[in-house]
Specification:
7% strand; globular; two-stranded antiparallel sheet; 6 strands
Length: 296
């Protein structure tokens, strides 16, 4: 996908290289085994039935836990990073800012307030508690920030076989989708409902949250392509492959040979692909309301 010639967002807090963190990687390159190994363990834990909200992004921060206080948040280095993978993340974040600033007032009568993107290595402190690389990318509604260890992109490519710039952009756009859900008032309502729900019902609510974020990522891609022609040959396939690779059924089957639908918190591969495709095709937020959909 095209990204080199687009502006970089300055809403980036680069915590890589600070005490307790390792080095950032390059897009598609090889990184240290420490972070990679932790990410592998996180994915294996999910596949074996360990609560994925603890291991990988999105709905894991909707469980209602109070922010932890193990350590003070580090000082952030604001502004676009200088390395290639950091530049990429800042460029994708800028594209989401430009798209949502334009379409959210028009489609939802709501002013867009951009989130910050925190880049870290290994672990860091978030408004939702202590963040670790094995959790995967996530959005924290408490401080309205996205958190990502960029070596997750290496893990996508090497372990999930879901590489490519557009696949990586989908990950960032998905987390921004959670921020849009927060601005729409959906996340607080879901959090309250989950506190009162049985585990099975709480999981089902998480699935709806995640599928809506997939659809909103598709909405971003629709308008980015319409406005700036970002897509190149094979990009759509990369995005669909990434959505499929992180389906609950596929991850569980790869780990233990079978899937348990009641334990799904992100949706099946087919569901994630279908909702991402719905947003990509229509480009309309109203098409992403998974809470009113009869079929997920």
């Amino acid at each position: 996908m095209r990204w080199d010639d687009f502006r970089r967002s300055t809403n980036v807090d680069d915590r890589r290289g600070q005490p307790g963190s390792g080095r950032g990687g390059q897009i598609g390159g090889r990184g240290g085994l420490g972070i990679g190994a932790m990410l592998v363990l996180g994915l294996i834990g999910w596949a074996l039935g360990i609560d994925p909200r603890v291991l990988i992004g999105g709905a894991e921060m909707l469980t209602g836990n109070e922010p932890q206080t193990q350590q003070a948040a580090p000082q952030d280095r604001a502004g676009a990073p200088e390395d290639k993978i950091g530049q990429f993340a800042a460029a994708i974040l800028a594209q989401t800012e430009d798209v949502w600033t334009a379409i959210l007032p028009r489609q939802a009568n709501l002013r867009y307030e951009p989130p910050s993107l925190v880049l870290f290595s290994g672990s860091t402190q978030s408004g939702c508690g202590f963040a670790q690389a094995q959790m995967g990318p996530f959005y924290c509604p408490v401080d309205r920030k996205l958190y990502i260890d960029l070596q997750f992109f290496q893990q996508m490519q090497q372990q999930l076989r879901a590489g490519g710039d557009f696949a990586f952009a989908y990950v960032i756009a998905h987390e921004v989708g959670h921020h849009v859900e927060n601005l729409l008032g959906i996340l607080p309502k879901v959090q309250q409902m989950q506190r009162q729900a049985a585990e099975r019902d709480a999981n089902a609510l998480s699935v709806r949250v995640e599928l809506m974020a997939d659809c909103l990522a598709g909405v971003w891609a629709h308008h980015a392509e319409k406005n700036w022609k970002i897509l190149e040959s094979g990009d759509i396939e990369e995005g669909i492959n990434a959505a499929s690779a992180v389906g609950d059924d596929r991850l569980q089957k790869s780990g233990r040979g079978y899937a348990v639908p009641d334990s799904f918190t992100h949706g099946s591969s087919e569901q994630r692909v279908r909702w991402f495709s719905a947003g990509l095709k229509g480009g309309d937020v109203s098409n992403c309301n998974t809470f009113q959909a009869q079929r997920l």
